[in-house]
Design brief:
There is one protein chain. By secondary structure, this protein is an alpha/beta fold. It has one domain: Vaccinia Virus protein VP39 (Rossmann fold). It has 8 helices and 9 strands. The chain has helices spanning 2-18, 32-38, 41-45, 63-69, 81-94, 132-141, 210-219, 242-248, and strands at 52-56, 73-78, 98-102, 116-121, 142-153, 187-191, 197-201, 222-230, 252-259. Strands 3-2-1-4-5-9-8 form a 7-stranded mixed sheet, with helices on both faces. The relative contact order is 0.14. Bound molecules: S-adenosylmethionine (SAM). The site of S-adenosylmethionine (SAM) has 21 residues, from α1.
Length: 262
């Protein structure tokens, strides 16, 4: 059942955040310039000062820190209380207000319709078994002409890893919509500052095909604005390194959409 999957994922995200993984470390040393570059104000977003921003499934104190520093009215919605506590820490550190709300991204009923100018969703929709409820909710809570930033796994390479075999990176699975790919990555190991290693079970993660994502967005009234592929910068990456893998198989796609007028 989906509710069971979400409950398991909540425990696993709390465990990962408690292990202080990279995306659970708040940005305490962010300047305004770095913040603007992080949320890519030079692209379709423009000035965010005074805008109502929902950072969706976006806890950890990075995205909210960027928008908070730039003067936006920030709300963070996330499954993990530990992740949300990092957004509170970042807000206290930098001195801007933030609202944090715990919940499942498939149900945003706590928010009224037409509430936000921007919904910013970093890499997280792949932790939902389906995309339709999430995108429908985003379309409801966004104001007409509001902007939706949605990052997601490149579905063609989702079950792959940087296991170079001398010729390339082997494809490990069929291109199937909605598939739980967690069996390929059952656990993550995180080295702590004192050298000890904490092993955390991987949250359930799902492949969403490009057609499912784009067709669902179009059905919910979103107009495509912009897309980019994330790759680790490295001019001469070594075969088998993470940078080389990402430059052969970009793992994340970042998109911007505008909600059509109702
Ligand atoms: C990879 S982190 C992304 C956030 C991070 N700020 C970043 O910089 O990329 C994924 C986030 O999605 C959240 N998440 C996972 N499943 C969720 C769900 N069903 N509803 C809301 N949040 C969820 C996790 O708790 C986690 O904070």
């Amino acid at each position: 059942m989906i509710a069971d999957i979400i409950a398991v994922n909540r425990e696993r995200w709390d465990a990962m955040a408690s292990a202080n993984v990279l995306f659970s470390r708040p940005f305490f040393n962010f300047t305004r310039e770095e913040a603007a570059a992080y949320v890519r104000c030079d692209t379709v977003l423009g000035e965010v000062d005074g805008k109502a921003v929902l950072c969706l499934a976006s806890g950890g104190g990075q995205d909210s820190a960027a928008f908070g520093l730039l003067g936006a009215n920030v709300t963070v919605f996330d499954l993990s209380d530990v992740q949300l506590s990092r957004d509170q820490e970042a807000a206290r550190h930098h001195g801007y207000p933030v609202q944090t709300v715990q919940g499942d991204m498939r149900d945003l009923s706590i928010f009224d319709a037409n509430t936000f100018d921007i919904v910013w969703q970093p890499y997280s929709i792949n932790y939902s078994p389906t995309v339709e409820p999430v995108i429908a909710e985003v379309s409801r809570v966004l104001k007409p002409s509001g902007i939706y930033h949605l990052a997601f796994a490149n579905p063609f390479v989702l079950a792959m890893d940087n296991d170079w075999d001398g010729n390339g990176y082997p494809l490990r699975d069929l291109y199937r919509d909605g598939e739980d790919i967690t069996r390929f990555f059952p656990a993550w190991e995180f080295t702590q500052d004192d050298g000890t290693v904490i092993t955390v079970a991987h949250p359930h993660e799902f492949r969403h095909t490009l057609s499912t994502l784009f067709n669902t967005l179009a059905r919910q009234g979103f107009l495509f604005l912009q897309m980019s592929e994330w790759m680790r910068p490295d001019a001469d990456p070594e075969q088998g390194s993470w940078a080389h893998f990402t430059q052969c198989c970009p793992p994340y796609l970042q998109t911007f959409w505008r909600l059509g007028a109702a």
